[in-house]
Model the fold of this input.
Amino acid sequence: MNRSPESSITILIIEDEMMIRTTTAAYLEDNGFSILEAANGREGLEKFRRHKPDFVLVDLRMPELDGFDVLKAVTKESPETPIVVVSGTGTIDDVIEAIRLGAWDFITKPIHDMSIVEHTITKSWERSLLLQENRQYREYLEDEVYKRTREVKESEAKFRSIVQTAAEGIILIDGDGSIISWNQGAAKTFGYTEKEIIGQSVEKLIPERYRGGHTHALQYLQSIGINNHTGKNLELRGLHKEGHELPLELSLVSWEASDTNFFCGIVRDITERKKAEEEKSRLVAAVDQATEVIVITDKDGLIQYVNPAFERITGYSYQEAVGQNPRILQSNKHDPEFYKSLWDTISKGQVWQGHIINKRKNGTFFEEEMTISPIRDETGTIFSYVAVKYDVTHEIQMEKQLRQAQKMEAIGTLAGGIAHDFNNILFAMLGYIEILKDMAPKDSPMLDYLLQIRKAGVRAKDLVRQILTFSRQGEQSLQRVIAAPVVKESLKLLRSSLPTTIDIQENIFSPMTQIMATPTQIQQIFMNLCTNAGYVMRKGGTLTVELVEVELDADFAALHDLKKGRFLKLSISDTGDGIPPEIQDRIFEPFFTTKPQGEGTGMGLAMVHGIVKNLGGTITVSSTFHQGTTFDLYFPAIMNPKKIPALTESNFLPQGKEHILLVDDDEMVIKVEKVLLEDLGYQVTTATNGPEALEIFHNTSVPFDLVLTDLTMPKMTGEQLAQELTAIFPQLPVLLTTGFNEGLNEASFKKAGIRALLAKPIEQKKLADTLHAIFHSPDNN
Amino acid sequence: MEQTLSILTIEDEPLIRQGIVNYLEDQGYTVLEAGDGQEGLEVFRRDKPDILLVDLQMPVIDGFEVLDVVQQESPETPVIVISGVGILQQAAHAVELGAWDFITKPIEDMFIVKHAIQKSWERAMLVQENKKYREKRKRHTEEIHEQKS
Done:
């Protein structure tokens, strides 16, 4: 190659033949080399060691230390220094030996051309440079490889320690499913040590019933290639060394090596999480199924959750409620101070407890007992409020119902007491009017005045009767009645009295149901309610009358103090303006009226209430503003209906001639009743107390056919008297009169031989019918 | 490595050629031979020998021409020229043109042929190795640059 020799190259020429040495040296110097000369081996080695030449040219055959010795020394001391030997022609064996000892090349003497020397030196020098350069490269690369290897090792050690100490199980398997790497997390999760599991099939970690599926999945993953499934979290079941299963979350990574896939599974034991989830779903179920209303809001009070009880009670669905302020329920029944104090309490972190009236979606109110608790995060900051509410509307209603019943009871007792006394007074007044009427001269104006007084007295009697009806102390001779015909009949009567602008709907669904009542009571109730309905629909509307047999549930029955079972329900609905909620509680009170002064007595609904209660039923009212009012009346239905004879009524007063003993401690009453009886043709003897009556009875010349006695008397009651008499004359009919029949025990009366009870003041018609029935009944002798 | 080396000997003097071929075969080389430059180039192109031994003085296509073609077509293939002792200038000229080494005729000892082959092959290997290292180093430097940037 034509590379020009480097000027800095120093060549040591060791040659004993001075001619050759100087010629060579001169030639090489001319060609730019630096030359050192040595005449023998010893000198050569000295110079070599001292000057460290770049190149050595040495004659093989020299006295003393020859070229071979120099060669050995140089290659030993500096193997990288090129050394070329010069050998005589025909001594090729020397050359071979020299090359074996490490000579780089050789030149044969005689040297025909100096360029051969230069060529040989150049080639060896070039080789030296290449070797040196390659060695540097190699060293550089080896160094790099070393550095890289160290980096990789460090990095691997880092990752290994991360993998080993990770809480997650990190498991590496090969394409056949054999486990090839196992960390501490995996050991903790599955119970196997690294030593136990490495090389085992991954199936050991899978419950038997899932193994088939796992194998398929692995094959599938292999077939779809790598990393189409990475980043996905799977939930599956693992098998612990001790045989129990555990829920796991697995994320999978795989990569392809030369001929197989590797899978790395990162496995997390989610037992605790599962437990927490179960716990949570249990709590959610509890909250969902709670009868208490539960509302959760954020810190600003916006609703985040409501349970089904909330939906049920308020009418707002979950979707409607979430995101709203609970203000949607505000009834405005409380003043702003109330709400302010509530918020002040809970925002201070305290629990608020109290009673609150709220409004449903449909505008109606309900009452709740509410507890609001703030919920704090770990730093103590309030982030949510939980309200647990218990709907007490029902309880409040029960309480009201009870209070109302007690009030009505008290009013009834009071009114009844007054009416009783008043009744006796009226009775005497009317009696004497009857007597005066007979005594008054035919053409005297006195007769007309007496009739006016009687008219007023009769009105007063009516009022007393109404009060007694309300207080349930009126006459009670209940009988089986089919309600439907009575209702229909009453409706017919009513139709003519209502304006034509009122449409009447008649829905009789239970035409045959029997109840215990009197037709008059049913008529009274019906006319009262319908007249009211007509009044509120003066401008027109629809009156709906419905009669249906229903089964009352226990709750309803309990609330209204009824026995549960079959009831006849009479509903009377109007389309009037409705009853304002605040007076709904009072409408059944006596003398409560909304009609202008003079138009109503306030006794209508009170009477209805009294009658219904008296018949063992109840009455409820529901009213919506501007939509109308419905009264529902419930009467116990008779479960074994019998055929009932049609009722007949006549104005005929049956007469009699029998001898009657009349007993009453009130002389006015005796006089009036005596007139009534004698008017009917009967013979009358009177007594003012029990013992006197007994004496008269025993000493009479004309026997008595019947005894009519007052119940309440000094010395001996009417009941005791009856007992004494019937003890001797069991067939003797005894009638009892009373103005106030509370506490009457029908069974004990029957036992005492009392045939019938008559309410004072006694109506002549009633008295006539009763006496006639007794004297003409088949079982009377 | 000698065992697998293939050597093409191009020499018009059959006696010399045969001597070289026999010797090299004995040494375990795979030997290809050609009696002139024309044939030599054909064999070179067909069999892609590792090393060529070429006599400089041949009729029609001489050693210089062969050297020139090989230089152009496969510069990394070592070419060793054979020249007569009396015409060393030619050998020197061939080396200037790119011959890797030369051998003088008459060949005093066949060891010289083997030595020339070994030296050339070693050099070829060193050059090749050097080239690889150079490329590796270059790549490596680029990688480092890339990582840094």
Q: What stands out?
A: The radius of gyration of chain A is 64 Å. The domain at 290-391 of chain A is CATH 3.30.450.20 (Beta-Lactamase).
